[in-house]
Amino acid sequence: MSLDVRELTIDIDGRRVVDGVSFSVPEGARVGLIGESGSGKSLTALAILGLLPDGAEAGGSIRWNGRELIGLTDRELAELRGDEIGIVFQEPRTALNPIRTVGRQIAESIRIHQGLSKRDAATRAVAEASRVALPDPHRVVARYPHQLSGGQRQRVAIAMALACRPRLLIADEPTTALDVTIQAEILELLRGLVEDDGMSLVFITHDLAVLSQIATHGVVLDAGKVVEDAPVAQLLTAPSSPVTRGLLRDATATLWRPGGAE
């Protein structure tokens, strides 16, 4: 299954904030959307999921496996989210429900999309917690989000996103709120899970060093437009856009391994 975005526009209250963005994500590919704050990368991801804020309107084309997503009803998009397309947000504290155990939250999408019984879904929730390397998963699933560390909460969010084995994962700056050590662990976990499942990945970040660890292709955005679209190795060694060169200068202050995602 592939994702094809063509001439995407997003207007918010009459102001154009994404202007003609185009890129493709072939089946099994790992593509990064990178740019500074306000570049339009997160709005692009939200448009794919049909989760744009009130007052925003998308134009152009977003095709998933040949199916046009722009114009689908909320119900139709909800059937795709969590089933065929998973999402991991930047801050799991706000993405997780504080009054439900994490096990119940992992099990919820399994019950909705796969029709499992409450008991079977609970058993699967433990397995999914184990899959994302949460310690003592039988106990973790009985806890509430506030009882977990930031890194553990992000692992729960990843477990929720991947529980139904989607074919596309969208990860919106999933490591930004974490310290460097935990960030590296989450990147390694995500990369391994994506490769194991053979799914496609859209990874959103402002950090070229981070992108080099998980994506093989990068789409650089600035002021709502694509300014460079190239393999990550090329972005690291021979960037053509001044915007990309600025991102590369910023990345030199971060520990990274050139070509680490290849």
Q: Summary?
A:
It is a peripheral membrane protein. By secondary structure, this protein is α/β, with parallel strands linked by helices.
What can you tell me about this protein's structure?
One of its GO terms (cellular component) is plasma membrane. It comes from Microbacterium allomyrinae. One of its GO terms (molecular function) is ATP hydrolysis activity. This protein is α/β, with parallel strands linked by helices and 262 residues long. The protein has two domains: 135 residues, Rossmann fold (3-Layer(aba) Sandwich), CATH 3.40.50; 70 residues, no CATH class. The chain contains eleven helices and ten strands. It has a six-stranded mixed sheet, with helices on both faces. Strand 1 and strand 2 form a beta hairpin. Helix 4 packs parallel to helix 7. It is globular and about 50 Å long. It starts with a strand and ends in an 11-residue tail after the last helix. The C terminus is likely disordered.
